[in-house]
What does this fold into?
Amino acid sequence: MDIAVKIIKMVGGLVLLIYGMDMLSINLKKIAGEKLKSILKKATDNVFKGVITGIIITVAVQSSSVVTVMVIGFVNAEILKLKNAIPIIMGANIGTTITAQILRLASVEGSTIFTLLSPEFLAPVFIIIGFALLEVKKKKNVKDFGQLLISVGLLFTGLMTMVDMASGFSELPIMKEILSTFSNPIVGLLAGTIITAIVQSSAATIGILQAISQTGIITYASTIPVVLGQNIGTCFTSVLSSIGASKNAKRVATVHLLFNFIGSIIFMIAIYTYQTLVGFSFWNNPIDMGGIANFHLIFNVVCTLILLPCAGLLEKLAMLAIRDNKEENEDEEDASEYLTVLNVLDERIAKIPSVAISNSLKVITKTAEIAEKNVKKSMNLLEKIDEEKLEHIQNREDAIDELDAKTAEFLVKIGNLELTEQENKSVTSLLKIESEFEKIGDYAYKLSKIVENMKNKKLEFSENAVKELNLVYKLVEDVLRKTIEALPKKDKTIVIEIQALKEIAEMYREKFKKQHIERLREARCSVDTGIAFIEILTVYEKIIDHCLNVSVEIANYAMDERYITKHEYLNSLYADDSGRLKSRFNELIHKYEILLEENNARNTANS
It folds into this structure.
């Protein structure tokens, strides 16, 4: 029964230690927050500056895992480059050793000054002062500092609880037998790796070892491999945090793992080679808190000195491990290009209407191209769907929304200036065009969700349904491409082309709806697939409608006459240019009928 109580108390001490570390990290980030971001962003000049930055930030936050996760986030957001992140991670490994150096004060005896600095004395002092600040002061920064002191007190309390309980196990034969197995380098390495991966804190693992070392039952031989293993286990947190992130963010986690793994293997080979050939005089002696803290520090400093010149090689290895592919490169280009194109919306040129309007058109064209890509990628999901592709579609949709908001804000500023009538008309048309492409982006995203829902329900279209959707998609693709190409050219004749394609699309939509209803009656497809089929056709129809709206606004943008509405424009089109419209309709319908016949012939041959 006594053993069970001691185990519970020791686990409770471990929980307090880990909780104290987490709270310390959270509260330090509250206090330092934006400064940490600023420091990390500036650490791009050279590798040495990056290492120093990593050390400083980690000493402040008291967690290399937190710093590594932050760096992964910054690389994912393209604030930091991969090569600039590597030395910061190396520095973080050195910075995390300060925790063990603080905890070693628990073993210092003798002078009054060391007694006052020991965790046993400081724990209640920090908790009392922190609680007082929380209760007495109302300012947020003071309360944050109070919480920080309490978290340090909890950390020290957890450590001292573990030290007290560990002493109760020191006489148990089974405990000595378990710990003695750690003298086997492989067993010790694996134990350190697994324990640290579970508690997700290398400092906590070191704290456990330091607590046990107070009993005198662990030696250098049984501790060193565990310390080496915990350096590998701490990478588990960064690997987890990189899930779902960009390729470069995943590479940061890979570099962290490679650095610690290679360093641990180098030390294992060096230490055990020397121990076998010569032998350490202290090898089987009990290790104390200071010995653990010192070895932890030496390991990380030496590893950094050895591997820092190899930062470029680590980057290349990470690139090999996490390879690029063509589609991912395209997606990364989207992000960088749309951020770059926003630079042309410079407020300094907003007061020059002609230049500002021209620059706005560049951003709108980029919005249109990203929307077009999302329509294509969403349609491709019918062939193969995965989470990464869906995430890229979401990212592009976010990009479209941001471009729309920034462009609208910029155009409104231009509209508030003293403009000519033509400039006023141009601003009005561009505002509407930008809005139309934003809506096309919304429908592209909706299309991806329809397909995702189908895949989740394990629904599949029949061969004929796929053929019909592909034909209408070809129409949509042509409409989008022609609309986007007409935009910078200010081609006012594009309305005839888009209206003709719209009429063809409506004709096929009604035809294919009837054919799909017939398939439903004959039970060749399910009700759910029927609903999805109609939904996709509706999305296609809406995209073409918005492209027609854009084509009318392009005409307005290009003409010197007064602004006319879509209704007015189409009325004049059917009244004055009905012959050209009918002629173009006949030319285009012939083209798509040939495509339909080719699809039918191909399907017949395959069957």
Observations:
- The longest helix spans residues 2-42.
- The chain has three domains: 2-321, 324-458, 459-607.
- DSSP finds 25 helices and no strands in the chain.
